[in-house]
Amino acid sequence: MPFTIHHIPVCPFSQRIEILLALKGVSGGIDFSVVDITKPRDPRLLELSKGSTALPVMEVPGKTALKERRVLLEFVEARFPAPPIARPDPYEHALENLIVQRESGFGVAGYTFVMNQDPEKLDTFKDRMLNEYRALNDILSDYAPGETFFFDRFGWAECVFTPFFQRFWFLDYYEGFELPDESDFQRVQRWRDACVEHPAAQQVTYDQIVKLYYDYAQGAGNGALVPGRTHSSFVFEPDWPSRPMPPADKYGHTATDAELGLV
228 exposed, middle or buried (CB, 10 Å; 0-12, 13-18, 19+)? Predict the structure, then answer.
């Protein structure tokens, strides 16, 4: 029985593992099972996760299932050791962890931004997001030996941040967010651009993120329904490629199921 990771659609944390496996050349080493978050959790999944609805969770043959995003990533790095993606040298690994430890605050800033429903708070959320990028820029400028990536290649820090960079395409689309062309952001802009274009990180697309995360932009996350709607943007059918692009004006108009191609 292989390892199996159960995750929500376009889960950034399971994509990290997909990227890691691709870099190691063992993409078939783990099975990925997408969970329909618009329906109640399967009792078997709840048993695996000890009653929590949080995903992802990994089935490990003959052992207790594992969860927590960084725990899973570190397990996969150790389980498939060649080639190492995290730096083997303790000092270099500490350096890359200087930026990795920023990932939680960075993720929260982006997701709370897109879920904001008050246009009067736009500047507050924009400033918070810019501060997160500025902090990454400072770490890259002060500690990263590489010119583009943190080191000389796409590695551990890139596995952690690339899925967030791609999820935050929803900020570009729904919030009109972009990094200023200023020195405070030049290093992180170069890093972000290289990360999202890397061949090992092409599991998701811009259109896919924008379409599936429409309900987040309306303040409804994790499969919850937007008031007045009967279908979540995370439904499996109709699948996202057949749907039109949602309206970008999240504050001026709430799209119907029909406008979103859900019925």
Answer: exposed
Q: 70 vs 74, 75, 109, 147, 203, CA distance in Å?
A: 6, 8, 19, 26, 19
Decide if 193 contacts 142 (C-beta within 8 A).
Answer: no
Pinpoint the alpha helices (H) of 80-205. 90-100, 103-115, 122-143, 156-167, 169-175, 186-197
Q: Residue 59's domain is classified under what CATH number?
A: 3.40.30.10
**Pairing state between β 57-59 and 66-67:** antiparallel
Judgement on whether residues 75 and 139 belong to the same structural domain of the protein: no
Q: What is the token pair recorded at 87?
A: 């730096």
Shared domain for 39 and 135, answered yes or no, is no
pTM exceeds 0.90, yes or no: yes
- Encode pLDDT of 73-117 as tens digits: 999 999 999 999 999 999 999 999 999 999 999 999 999 999 999
Give the phi and the psi of residue 24 in degrees, each rounded to 5. Answer: -85, -10
Asked if 45 contacts 57 with a C-beta cutoff of 8 angstroms, the reply is: yes
Residues 73 and 135 in one domain: no
